[in-house]
Design goal:
The chain is mostly beta strands. Helices cover 9% and strands 59% of the residues.
Protein backbone atom coordinates (compact mmCIF):
# COMPACT_ATOMS: atom_id res chain seq x y z
CA UNK A 1 0.00 0.00 0.00
CA UNK A 2 2.83 2.30 0.88
CA UNK A 3 4.50 1.38 -2.41
CA UNK A 4 1.40 2.34 -4.38
CA UNK A 5 1.12 5.66 -2.57
CA UNK A 6 4.82 6.39 -3.25
CA UNK A 7 4.38 5.62 -6.96
CA UNK A 8 1.33 7.90 -7.12
CA UNK A 9 3.24 10.71 -5.39
CA UNK A 10 6.23 10.35 -7.74
CA UNK A 11 3.91 10.38 -10.77
CA UNK A 12 2.19 13.51 -9.46
CA UNK A 13 5.51 15.34 -8.95
CA UNK A 14 6.72 14.37 -12.44
CA UNK A 15 3.47 15.59 -14.01
CA UNK A 16 3.80 18.95 -12.19
CA UNK A 17 7.44 19.35 -13.30
CA UNK A 18 6.94 18.58 -16.98
CA UNK A 19 3.38 19.84 -17.30
CA UNK A 20 4.20 23.27 -18.77
CA UNK A 21 6.60 21.76 -21.30
CA UNK A 22 4.19 19.05 -22.25
CA UNK A 23 1.44 21.60 -22.62
CA UNK A 24 3.69 23.77 -24.78
CA UNK A 25 4.66 20.85 -26.91
CA UNK A 26 1.06 19.77 -27.26
CA UNK A 27 -0.03 23.21 -28.36
CA UNK A 28 2.89 23.46 -30.75
CA UNK A 29 1.89 20.21 -32.38
CA UNK A 30 -1.77 21.11 -32.62
CA UNK A 31 -2.42 23.31 -35.65
CA UNK A 32 -4.32 26.56 -34.89
CA UNK A 33 -7.81 26.93 -36.22
CA UNK A 34 -8.01 28.39 -39.68
CA UNK A 35 -8.40 32.19 -39.74
CA UNK A 36 -10.37 34.10 -42.31
CA UNK A 37 -8.02 35.81 -44.78
CA UNK A 38 -7.98 39.63 -44.57
CA UNK A 39 -9.72 41.12 -47.57
CA UNK A 40 -7.22 42.45 -50.10
CA UNK A 41 -7.32 46.20 -50.51
CA UNK A 42 -8.38 47.31 -53.94
CA UNK A 43 -5.57 49.15 -55.73
CA UNK A 44 -6.05 52.90 -55.84
CA UNK A 45 -7.12 54.03 -59.29
CA UNK A 46 -4.93 56.67 -60.93
CA UNK A 47 -6.31 60.18 -61.30
CA UNK A 48 -7.20 61.45 -64.75
CA UNK A 49 -7.83 64.75 -66.47
CA UNK A 50 -9.58 65.27 -69.81
CA UNK A 51 -9.06 68.51 -71.72
CA UNK A 52 -11.57 70.20 -74.01
CA UNK A 53 -9.75 68.87 -77.11
CA UNK A 54 -10.20 65.29 -75.89
CA UNK A 55 -6.63 64.79 -74.73
CA UNK A 56 -6.42 62.68 -71.58
CA UNK A 57 -3.66 62.51 -68.96
CA UNK A 58 -3.31 59.86 -66.28
CA UNK A 59 -1.33 60.36 -63.09
CA UNK A 60 -1.76 62.09 -59.73
CA UNK A 61 -3.67 65.29 -58.95
CA UNK A 62 -1.65 67.14 -56.28
CA UNK A 63 -3.99 70.04 -55.53
CA UNK A 64 -4.99 73.60 -56.31
CA UNK A 65 -2.91 76.17 -54.40
CA UNK A 66 -2.73 79.96 -54.94
CA UNK A 67 -4.62 79.74 -58.23
CA UNK A 68 -2.46 76.97 -59.75
CA UNK A 69 -3.55 73.33 -60.12
CA UNK A 70 -0.71 70.79 -60.09
CA UNK A 71 -1.01 67.44 -61.87
CA UNK A 72 1.78 64.87 -62.01
CA UNK A 73 1.43 63.05 -65.31
CA UNK A 74 2.92 59.62 -65.91
CA UNK A 75 4.25 60.86 -69.26
CA UNK A 76 4.95 64.59 -68.80
CA UNK A 77 5.91 64.86 -65.16
CA UNK A 78 4.49 67.68 -63.01
CA UNK A 79 2.50 70.24 -64.96
CA UNK A 80 0.24 73.19 -64.12
CA UNK A 81 -3.30 72.99 -65.44
CA UNK A 82 -6.11 75.54 -65.63
CA UNK A 83 -9.20 74.08 -63.95
CA UNK A 84 -11.45 76.50 -65.82
CA UNK A 85 -10.33 75.02 -69.17
CA UNK A 86 -10.61 71.30 -68.51
CA UNK A 87 -13.54 69.09 -69.42
CA UNK A 88 -13.25 66.54 -66.60
CA UNK A 89 -11.01 65.66 -63.67
CA UNK A 90 -11.41 62.55 -61.53
CA UNK A 91 -9.47 61.64 -58.39
CA UNK A 92 -9.90 58.78 -55.92
CA UNK A 93 -7.74 60.63 -53.35
CA UNK A 94 -9.31 62.67 -50.55
CA UNK A 95 -8.97 66.45 -50.53
CA UNK A 96 -10.08 69.45 -48.50
CA UNK A 97 -11.89 71.98 -50.72
CA UNK A 98 -11.64 75.56 -49.46
CA UNK A 99 -13.93 78.32 -50.75
CA UNK A 100 -12.81 81.92 -51.15
CA UNK A 101 -13.30 84.08 -48.07
CA UNK A 102 -12.93 81.22 -45.56
CA UNK A 103 -10.70 82.14 -42.60
CA UNK A 104 -10.22 79.65 -39.76
CA UNK A 105 -8.20 79.77 -36.56
CA UNK A 106 -5.53 77.06 -36.24
CA UNK A 107 -7.62 75.03 -33.78
CA UNK A 108 -10.90 75.51 -35.65
CA UNK A 109 -12.25 72.87 -38.03
CA UNK A 110 -15.87 73.10 -39.07
CA UNK A 111 -18.21 72.55 -41.99
CA UNK A 112 -16.90 75.55 -43.94
CA UNK A 113 -14.32 73.23 -45.52
CA UNK A 114 -15.56 70.24 -47.51
CA UNK A 115 -13.59 66.97 -47.48
CA UNK A 116 -13.77 63.90 -49.67
CA UNK A 117 -12.99 62.57 -53.13
CA UNK A 118 -13.47 65.06 -55.94
CA UNK A 119 -14.67 65.26 -59.52
CA UNK A 120 -14.43 68.38 -61.68
CA UNK A 121 -16.76 68.87 -64.65
CA UNK A 122 -18.55 71.83 -66.26
CA UNK A 123 -16.75 74.33 -64.00
CA UNK A 124 -18.12 72.56 -60.92
CA UNK A 125 -16.16 70.70 -58.22
CA UNK A 126 -18.15 67.82 -56.74
CA UNK A 127 -17.03 66.68 -53.28
CA UNK A 128 -18.11 63.21 -52.12
CA UNK A 129 -17.52 62.85 -48.34
CA UNK A 130 -18.49 59.15 -48.43
CA UNK A 131 -20.33 57.25 -45.67
CA UNK A 132 -23.61 57.86 -47.46
CA UNK A 133 -23.42 61.64 -46.99
CA UNK A 134 -24.70 63.83 -49.82
CA UNK A 135 -22.35 65.09 -52.52
CA UNK A 136 -21.69 68.84 -52.31
CA UNK A 137 -20.59 71.23 -55.04
CA UNK A 138 -18.39 74.32 -55.38
CA UNK A 139 -17.95 76.45 -58.49
CA UNK A 140 -14.40 76.64 -59.83
CA UNK A 141 -14.71 80.44 -59.73
CA UNK A 142 -15.39 80.24 -55.96
CA UNK A 143 -12.35 78.09 -55.18
CA UNK A 144 -9.54 79.22 -52.93
CA UNK A 145 -7.60 75.95 -52.52
CA UNK A 146 -7.87 72.21 -52.98
CA UNK A 147 -5.51 70.61 -50.46
CA UNK A 148 -4.57 66.94 -50.12
CA UNK A 149 -6.18 65.60 -46.93
CA UNK A 150 -2.87 64.63 -45.19
CA UNK A 151 -1.48 68.12 -45.83
CA UNK A 152 -4.72 69.69 -44.61
CA UNK A 153 -4.57 67.69 -41.35
CA UNK A 154 -0.97 68.80 -40.73
CA UNK A 155 -2.09 72.43 -41.01
CA UNK A 156 -3.79 72.19 -37.61
CA UNK A 157 -0.77 70.81 -35.75
CA UNK A 158 1.90 72.92 -34.07
CA UNK A 159 5.08 72.59 -36.15
CA UNK A 160 8.57 72.25 -34.69
CA UNK A 161 10.81 75.30 -34.35
CA UNK A 162 12.88 74.21 -37.36
CA UNK A 163 9.85 73.76 -39.62
CA UNK A 164 8.69 76.25 -42.25
CA UNK A 165 11.75 78.49 -42.62
CA UNK A 166 12.15 80.29 -45.93
CA UNK A 167 14.67 82.79 -47.18
CA UNK A 168 18.17 82.89 -48.63
CA UNK A 169 21.82 82.36 -47.69
CA UNK A 170 24.43 84.34 -49.62
CA UNK A 171 28.19 84.71 -49.87
CA UNK A 172 30.58 86.78 -51.99
CA UNK A 173 34.35 87.25 -52.08
CA UNK A 174 37.12 89.04 -54.00
CA UNK A 175 40.93 88.89 -54.00
CA UNK A 176 43.45 91.25 -55.59
CA UNK A 177 47.22 90.60 -55.68
CA UNK A 178 49.17 93.59 -57.04
CA UNK A 179 51.03 96.59 -55.59
CA UNK A 180 48.08 96.66 -53.22
CA UNK A 181 46.75 93.41 -51.82
CA UNK A 182 43.06 93.42 -51.05
CA UNK A 183 40.66 90.83 -49.75
CA UNK A 184 36.95 91.15 -49.15
CA UNK A 185 34.21 88.82 -47.96
CA UNK A 186 30.47 89.38 -47.74
CA UNK A 187 27.82 87.14 -46.24
CA UNK A 188 24.07 87.38 -45.77
CA UNK A 189 21.36 85.37 -44.03
CA UNK A 190 17.71 86.33 -44.47
CA UNK A 191 15.22 83.89 -42.95
CA UNK A 192 11.49 84.12 -42.20
CA UNK A 193 9.13 81.61 -40.62
CA UNK A 194 5.46 82.57 -40.93
CA UNK A 195 2.73 80.42 -39.38
CA UNK A 196 0.56 79.61 -41.17
CA UNK A 197 2.49 79.62 -44.44
CA UNK A 198 1.56 81.90 -47.33
CA UNK A 199 -0.13 78.99 -49.12
CA UNK A 200 -2.46 78.47 -46.12
CA UNK A 201 -4.22 81.80 -46.52
CA UNK A 202 -7.48 80.25 -45.29
CA UNK A 203 -5.95 80.09 -41.80
CA UNK A 204 -5.77 83.20 -39.62
CA UNK A 205 -2.22 84.52 -39.02
CA UNK A 206 -0.58 83.17 -35.87
CA UNK A 207 3.08 84.17 -35.56
CA UNK A 208 6.21 85.01 -37.50
CA UNK A 209 9.94 84.88 -36.80
CA UNK A 210 12.65 86.84 -38.63
CA UNK A 211 16.43 86.36 -38.61
CA UNK A 212 18.66 88.74 -40.60
CA UNK A 213 22.46 88.92 -40.72
CA UNK A 214 24.69 90.92 -43.10
CA UNK A 215 28.50 90.99 -42.90
CA UNK A 216 31.15 92.84 -44.94
CA UNK A 217 34.84 92.46 -44.15
CA UNK A 218 37.84 93.58 -46.15
CA UNK A 219 41.47 94.70 -45.96
CA UNK A 220 43.74 96.71 -48.29
CA UNK A 221 47.49 96.70 -47.71
CA UNK A 222 50.72 97.67 -49.47
CA UNK A 223 54.37 97.90 -48.41
CA UNK A 224 55.28 100.66 -45.94
CA UNK A 225 51.61 101.68 -45.56
CA UNK A 226 49.21 100.92 -42.71
CA UNK A 227 46.59 98.30 -43.55
CA UNK A 228 43.12 99.69 -44.16
CA UNK A 229 40.31 97.54 -42.75
CA UNK A 230 36.57 97.48 -43.27
CA UNK A 231 34.31 95.54 -40.92
CA UNK A 232 30.53 95.99 -40.87
CA UNK A 233 27.77 93.71 -39.66
CA UNK A 234 24.06 94.08 -38.98
CA UNK A 235 22.03 91.38 -37.18
CA UNK A 236 18.33 91.26 -36.26
CA UNK A 237 16.10 88.70 -34.56
CA UNK A 238 12.37 89.34 -34.23
CA UNK A 239 9.26 87.49 -33.09
CA UNK A 240 5.79 88.65 -34.17
CA UNK A 241 2.56 87.48 -32.56
CA UNK A 242 -0.67 88.30 -34.42
CA UNK A 243 -3.77 89.12 -32.42
CA UNK A 244 -5.84 89.97 -35.52
CA UNK A 245 -5.47 89.23 -39.21
CA UNK A 246 -3.27 92.30 -39.78
CA UNK A 247 -2.09 93.66 -36.41
CA UNK A 248 0.68 92.10 -34.34
CA UNK A 249 2.87 92.71 -31.30
CA UNK A 250 6.58 92.01 -31.58
CA UNK A 251 9.80 91.77 -29.64
CA UNK A 252 13.15 92.45 -31.30
CA UNK A 253 16.88 92.67 -30.72
CA UNK A 254 19.43 94.26 -33.07
CA UNK A 255 23.23 94.32 -33.12
CA UNK A 256 25.38 96.59 -35.30
CA UNK A 257 29.12 96.99 -35.71
CA UNK A 258 30.70 99.45 -38.15
CA UNK A 259 34.46 99.95 -38.03
CA UNK A 260 34.13 102.63 -40.72
CA UNK A 261 31.99 104.78 -38.40
CA UNK A 262 33.96 104.14 -35.21
CA UNK A 263 31.09 102.03 -33.84
CA UNK A 264 32.27 99.03 -31.83
CA UNK A 265 28.80 97.72 -31.00
CA UNK A 266 25.28 99.05 -30.97
CA UNK A 267 22.76 96.92 -29.06
CA UNK A 268 19.01 97.43 -29.18
CA UNK A 269 16.31 95.58 -27.21
CA UNK A 270 12.62 96.41 -27.38
CA UNK A 271 9.18 95.72 -28.71
CA UNK A 272 6.13 97.35 -30.20
CA UNK A 273 3.17 97.11 -32.55
CA UNK A 274 3.09 96.32 -36.26
CA UNK A 275 0.52 96.37 -39.05
CA UNK A 276 0.61 94.12 -42.13
CA UNK A 277 -0.94 96.38 -44.74
CA UNK A 278 -0.49 93.92 -47.62
CA UNK A 279 -0.34 90.15 -47.16
CA UNK A 280 -0.30 88.13 -50.37
CA UNK A 281 1.61 85.02 -51.52
CA UNK A 282 3.62 87.31 -53.83
CA UNK A 283 4.03 90.42 -51.68
CA UNK A 284 4.04 91.56 -48.05
CA UNK A 285 4.18 95.13 -46.74
CA UNK A 286 4.57 95.93 -43.01
CA UNK A 287 4.94 99.05 -40.91
CA UNK A 288 6.16 98.89 -37.30
CA UNK A 289 6.83 101.16 -34.33
CA UNK A 290 8.70 100.22 -31.16
CA UNK A 291 10.06 101.55 -27.87
CA UNK A 292 13.59 100.35 -27.10
CA UNK A 293 16.67 100.48 -24.95
CA UNK A 294 19.82 101.16 -27.00
CA UNK A 295 23.46 100.94 -25.96
CA UNK A 296 26.10 102.50 -28.28
CA UNK A 297 29.77 101.68 -27.71
CA UNK A 298 32.30 103.59 -29.84
CA UNK A 299 36.05 103.32 -30.39
CA UNK A 300 36.22 106.61 -28.46
CA UNK A 301 34.69 105.70 -25.08
CA UNK A 302 33.61 109.27 -24.32
CA UNK A 303 31.06 108.96 -27.15
CA UNK A 304 29.25 105.98 -25.58
CA UNK A 305 25.49 106.33 -25.02
CA UNK A 306 22.66 104.61 -23.15
CA UNK A 307 19.48 105.69 -24.90
CA UNK A 308 15.72 105.32 -24.75
CA UNK A 309 14.48 105.52 -28.31
CA UNK A 310 11.97 104.29 -30.85
CA UNK A 311 12.34 102.64 -34.24
CA UNK A 312 9.83 103.35 -37.04
CA UNK A 313 10.14 100.79 -39.83
CA UNK A 314 8.60 99.98 -43.19
CA UNK A 315 9.42 96.70 -44.96
CA UNK A 316 8.35 95.37 -48.35
CA UNK A 317 9.02 92.04 -50.09
CA UNK A 318 7.77 90.99 -53.50
CA UNK A 319 8.16 88.02 -55.83
CA UNK A 320 8.51 89.23 -59.41
CA UNK A 321 8.29 87.51 -62.79
CA UNK A 322 10.74 84.70 -63.59
CA UNK A 323 11.43 84.07 -59.91
CA UNK A 324 13.04 87.44 -59.17
CA UNK A 325 12.66 88.55 -55.55
CA UNK A 326 12.82 92.10 -54.17
CA UNK A 327 13.32 93.07 -50.54
CA UNK A 328 13.31 96.67 -49.29
CA UNK A 329 13.54 98.07 -45.75
CA UNK A 330 13.85 101.51 -44.21
CA UNK A 331 13.93 102.62 -40.57
CA UNK A 332 14.42 105.81 -38.58
CA UNK A 333 15.44 105.75 -34.91
CA UNK A 334 14.99 108.97 -32.90
CA UNK A 335 16.54 108.99 -29.41
CA UNK A 336 14.18 110.46 -26.82
CA UNK A 337 16.90 110.94 -24.19
CA UNK A 338 19.44 112.57 -26.54
CA UNK A 339 18.08 114.44 -29.55
CA UNK A 340 21.47 114.38 -31.31
CA UNK A 341 21.93 110.60 -31.16
CA UNK A 342 19.43 109.57 -33.86
CA UNK A 343 20.16 107.05 -36.58
CA UNK A 344 18.67 105.48 -39.70
CA UNK A 345 19.06 102.35 -41.79
CA UNK A 346 17.99 101.46 -45.34
CA UNK A 347 18.53 98.47 -47.59
CA UNK A 348 17.31 97.15 -50.92
CA UNK A 349 18.18 93.80 -52.47
CA UNK A 350 17.34 91.84 -55.60
CA UNK A 351 17.75 88.09 -56.10
CA UNK A 352 18.05 86.85 -59.70
CA UNK A 353 17.64 83.06 -60.20
CA UNK A 354 20.43 81.34 -62.12
CA UNK A 355 20.17 77.58 -61.65
CA UNK A 356 17.58 75.74 -59.56
CA UNK A 357 17.94 77.17 -56.01
CA UNK A 358 21.07 79.17 -56.80
CA UNK A 359 20.85 82.85 -57.67
CA UNK A 360 22.87 86.04 -57.94
CA UNK A 361 22.11 88.71 -55.33
CA UNK A 362 22.69 92.45 -55.52
CA UNK A 363 22.31 94.52 -52.34
CA UNK A 364 22.68 98.17 -51.36
CA UNK A 365 22.82 99.17 -47.67
CA UNK A 366 23.04 102.64 -46.13
CA UNK A 367 23.71 103.02 -42.40
CA UNK A 368 23.49 106.51 -40.87
CA UNK A 369 24.71 107.71 -37.45
CA UNK A 370 24.18 111.35 -36.64
CA UNK A 371 26.87 111.52 -33.92
CA UNK A 372 29.88 109.35 -34.83
CA UNK A 373 33.28 110.05 -33.22
CA UNK A 374 35.40 112.86 -34.73
CA UNK A 375 36.99 112.08 -38.13
CA UNK A 376 34.31 109.53 -39.03
CA UNK A 377 31.62 110.08 -41.65
CA UNK A 378 27.95 109.85 -40.74
CA UNK A 379 27.02 107.65 -43.71
CA UNK A 380 28.28 104.17 -44.51
CA UNK A 381 27.19 102.82 -47.91
CA UNK A 382 27.71 99.25 -49.12
CA UNK A 383 26.95 97.70 -52.51
CA UNK A 384 27.54 93.95 -52.57
CA UNK A 385 27.02 91.06 -54.97
CA UNK A 386 27.27 87.33 -54.36
CA UNK A 387 25.90 83.85 -54.88
CA UNK A 388 22.70 83.02 -53.00
CA UNK A 389 21.07 79.71 -52.12
CA UNK A 390 17.30 79.98 -51.72
CA UNK A 391 15.39 78.03 -49.07
CA UNK A 392 11.76 77.08 -49.73
Amino acid sequence: MRKIRAEVAIAFLISVAIGPFASTSLHAQTPPPAQAAAPAQAPTEPDSVVFANGEKLVGHFEGFIAGAAKFKSDKLGEITIDLSKIQELHSSQKFAVVRKGVKLARGERDGQILQGTITVANQIVQVDPGSGLPVQTVKVSELNDIVAEPTFDLSFRSPGVFHGWKGALGIGASLVEATQESESLTGAVNLVRAMPTASQNWLSPSNRMLVVFNESYGTVSQPNTPTVKTSIFHAVAERDQYFSSNVFAFGTTTFDHNYSQGLDLQQLYGGGIGWTIIKHPKQVFDIKASIDYERQSFQLASQDHDLANSVFTEEYTRTLAHGLALHELGSVSPAWTDEVAYSAYASVGLILPVYKKFAVSVNAIDSFLNDPPPMFRKNSVQITTGITYTLN
